[in-house]
Amino acid sequence: DVEAHTQIVVSPEDDIELRRIRITNRSRAARTIEVTSYAEVVLSSGIADSLHPAFGNLFVQTEVLSDRDSILATRRARTGEDPQRWMMHLLALHGGESQRTSFETDRLRFLGRNNGIGSAAAAHSADDLSGTCGSVLDPIVSIRQRVLRCSIAF
Questions:
Q1: What is the four-CA torsion angle of 149, 64, 21, 127, rounded to 10 degrees?
Q2: 120 and 109 Cβ atoms separated by less than 8 Å
């Protein structure tokens, strides 16, 4: 009795991807719905990331903006000629009542030891995400939000 509908839009003019997930509880029972996002951070060219992904990750810094339900990631410049690169991951709630929001930027903490994205430890845990941010070895962006009524977009 829970219905989910996803829309994905990628702008041809800007480097932006929008995902809207509409969740509707059609049952008579009150439900708490939990949504957890996950994206890997790549703030370098595609070829640079393919050749040396671990090295590129060393220059990524993350910051949790809890008052805005978002995570900001930036790549520290190695030289004065490197372009400044930014990424923002945001979860915006519409038409629902939020119980709490938690954040994660460390891939190992999210996945757990020897797990892949299909068996992530965070997906099987009712606990809040750790809130880790700053310089991590393998950066990701993940936001978990628990809502009482179901109609959310991120």
A1: -60
A2: no
DSSP states of 59-102 as a string? Answer: TEEEEEEGGGTEEEEEE--SSTTSPPEEEEEE-EE-SS-EEEEE
- Which residues, other chains included, contact 118 with Cβ-Cβ below 8 Å and sequence gap of 6+? none
Contact predicate 84/146, CB 8 Å:
no
Cα 40 to Cα 3, 87, 90, 97, 99, distances in angstroms:
27, 11, 14, 28, 26
The pair of structure tokens assigned to 14 is 């800007």
The contacts of residue 87 (CB under 8 Å, 6+ apart) are: 41, 43, 72, 73, 74, 141
Distance CA 130, CA 72 (A): 16
Question: What is the chain's pLDDT, residue by residue, as a tens digit (154 residues)?
Answer: 888 899 999 998 988 889 998 888 888 877 788 889 999 888 877 787 788 777 777 788 999 998 898 999 998 877 778 788 889 999 888 877 778 899 999 999 998 888 888 888 888 887 888 888 888 888 999 999 988 754 433 3
Q: Using CA atoms, how far apart are residues 57 and 69, in angstroms rounded to an integer?
A: 23
Its pTM stands at 0.84
